[in-house]
Amino acid sequence: MADSFVYKASLAIIPRLYLGLSRILFISCRLKVGGKEHLDMVVRQGGGIATFWHYSILYIFYHLRSFPAAVMVSASKDGEYIARLARLLGHIPVRGSSNQRGVAGLKHLLREVRAGKNAGIVADGSQGPARKAQAGSILLASMSGRPILPMAWAASRYKAFRSWDLTVFPLPFCTIFFQYGEPLSVPKGIRGDEVEIYRLELEHRLNRVYETAWQRVGRRPHDRPLND
């Protein structure tokens, strides 16, 4: 019972505390953007599906606060912190992942998109493997008719956590480069081998914008060892 109380109290405090502190930090950073024409194209078309690698999640919800979306968040207890943070930033958290409630979560996202909302999906899921695209974005794009907008960001100075994806957090007064990629349209009703073809294409585009973002801040990709 004590553990339950501590968990509930932390859910009420930690996301709000993080948001307040991170806003101050992010304001100190210099933001540069590449590929904004791709974002503008998707906005003109009525919205789309923002897709990104998991390493980028601590900044990306903040960056996209002007484009609120229904976002897939892990159904785990730890995922509730991210869900509450997303809600504080104006997004609509949809609980699900590749391992828990994934199909139900995808159906919920589809309802939100058909109601006129943007969507957001972590391409490599809640448990990875890192920078290997899963099929969720492809299926949602096929069912909804909305384009997928790949995106990535990099920071000139950052902290990488010891998580499976080496989650990145930008440090104060750094330069953040945010790169949008070419939108990917997916035909309706695809299945089987066709899904795999588009999944591989999405993975390629995500890794291309990822590499571009890190090049633009003059750093090696965050998951590449120094002796590589």
Short description:
With 228 residues, the protein is an alpha/beta fold. It has helices at 2-28, 36-44, 57-63, 79-88, 102-114, 136-144, 193-216; strands at 30-34, 49-52, 69-73, 92-95, 118-122, 148-155, 158-160, 168-170, 175-180.
Helix/strand layout:
Elements lengths: L1 H27 L1 E5 L1 H9 L4 E4 L4 H7 L5 E5 L5 H10 L3 E4 L6 H13 L3 E5 L13 H9 L3 E8 L2 E3 L7 E3 L4 E6 L12 H24 L12
Parallel strand pairs: 1-9, 2-5, 2-6, 3-4, 3-5
Antiparallel strand pairs: 6-9, 7-8
Helix pairs in contact: 1-4, 5-6
What does this structure look like?
With 228 residues, this protein is α/β, with parallel strands linked by helices. It has a single domain, classed as 3-Layer(aba) Sandwich (Glycerol-3-phosphate (1)-acyltransferase). It has helices spanning 2-28, 36-44, 57-63, 79-88, 102-114, 136-144, 193-216, and strands at residues 30-34, 49-52, 69-73, 92-95, 118-122, 148-155, 158-160, 168-170, 175-180. The strands form 2 sheets. Strands 1-9-6-2-5-3-4 form a 7-stranded mixed beta sheet, sandwiched between helices. A two-stranded antiparallel sheet has the order 7-8. β3, α4 and β4 form a beta-alpha-beta unit. α1 (2-28) crosses α4 and α5 (102-114) packs parallel to α6.
